[in-house]
Write a structure and sequence with these properties.
With 362 residues, the protein is α/β, with parallel strands linked by helices. The protein has 14 helices and 15 strands. The strands form two sheets. An eight-stranded mixed beta sheet has the order 3-2-1-4-5-6-14-15, with helices on both faces. The chain has a seven-stranded mixed beta sheet with strand order 9-8-7-10-11-13-12, sandwiched between helices. α6 packs antiparallel against α11 and α11 packs across α12.
């Protein structure tokens, strides 16, 4: 199979879909890899390394799409790439289609076999490709929030860790999955006062056992969410419903009542966001203010730590890429139930039930 690696064009997205070592593995298995020049530079991988791994390098972004049978990316195609997608092509990347109707229409019209990293699901319910990126995003969310709490950047001027004699910041984490758990670990490590909310009582109990007095664990009832957010210096949206839009947990009215200078980091913005006031931003223009509350809503947070993120991503995507390349998408998804759940669009139709339901409801 001919596999294409285009350079990512999302704002300050420095990750690349495959490392040179992964390319070498595919080439040794008898496949051909076409990579755009400079695709790996942001992650510290040179064109020379890709050539030595056996990739054919091309100058043109469009040429990668034209020649490849399967496009492997990090982030979803942007509007400028829609016309580059070839009829019947396989696309393997993060898609987040529940919040992206324009891309859905293109994938259906061009009969793209679209496989989403974020909905590949193991029999135990775990999300193997989303997991490492969620770990990075969760940890980064706290560091980013701590940065924007600085008065210079519009925050309230609170040091997240506090100092002896002065209280630390109050950090509220909505959702205790992979993103939330990693945010919690980082916030506790920095000495913040942390409240974590989750809809599952068992998860709340686990957090209490694990962190004791360092964390207040609460069930995510509307009353608890409102009270916690209104008391927060930093609120982190870490809600995930695989394949679906993120639920809107915090209304504009509640945001307007938050403490002025507090910070929202909505990691769930790539699925629509869990704050009513959330909208996607970019690394070039990451924040905006709504009624005195600073919002950070960048959908590709791991893109700013691309070396770590690319290595972690390739570790988990490569087995699936090899399976598709060796067997073709039809046989690969038939033999691998986890991969089958990753298929969002196939033969011109939306085939993932939760994605279909989310789009119907939006």
């Amino acid at each position: 199979m001919i596999i294409g690696i285009p350079k990512e064009i999302m704002d300050q997205e420095f990750r690349v879909a495959l490392t040179p070592l992964a390319v070498a593995t595919l080439v040794q298995a008898g496949h051909r890899v076409i990579a755009e020049q400079g695709a790996g530079a942001g992650s510290g991988f040179s064109d020379r390394a890709y050539r030595e791994a056996g990739a054919n390098l091309v100058r043109s972004h469009a040429m990668v799409f034209k020649k490849a049978e399967m496009i492997v990316k990090v982030k979803q195609p942007l509007p400028s790439e829609f016309s580059l997608l070839q009829q019947g092509q396989i696309l393997f990347t993060f898609l987040h289609l529940a919040a992206n109707r324009p891309l859905v229409r293109v994938l259906i019209r061009r009969e793209i076999e679209a496989v989403a990293y974020e909905t590949i699901e193991m029999p135990n319910g775990s999300l193997p490709i989303l997991k490492p990126m969620s770990e990075i995003a969760g940890r980064m969310a706290v560091l980013i929030g701590a940065f924007y709490l600085q008065k210079t950047y519009g925050g309230s001027g609170i040091l997240i860790s506090g100092i002896p004699g002065v209280k630390s910041a109050k950090v509220v984490i909505l959702g205790a999955g992979i993103v939330g758990s990693n945010a919690l670990q980082m916030a506790v490590g920095l000495g913040a006062r942390v409240t974590a909310l989750d809809r599952e009582e068992k998860r709340v109990q686990q957090l209490q056992i694990l962190y004791g007095e360092h964390v207040t664990g609460l069930l995510a009832s509307p009353e608890n969410i409102e009270a916690a957010v209104l008391d927060a210096d930093l609120a982190i949206g870490a809600v995930l419903l695989p394949g679906s839009k993120a639920p809107r947990l915090i209304s504009r009215k509640i945001v307007s009542r938050m403490k002025k200078g507090s910070v929202i980091v909505d990691v769930s913005v790539d699925q629509g966001g869990c704050f009513e006031t959330s909208r996607p931003t970019t690394h070039s223009h990451p924040v905006y203010e709504v009624q005195g509350i600073l919002h950070y809503c960048v959908p590709n947070i791991p893109g700013v730590v691309p070396r770590t993120a690319t290595l972690a991503l390739t570790n988990v995507t490569l087995p699936f890429i090899i399976g598709i390349a060796n067997q073709g998408i039809e046989k690969a998804k038939a033999e691998n139930p986890a991969l089958a759940k990753g298929v969002n669009v196939y033969d011109g139709k939306i085939v993932h039930p939760k994605v279909a339901l989310a789009l119907k409801a939006s």
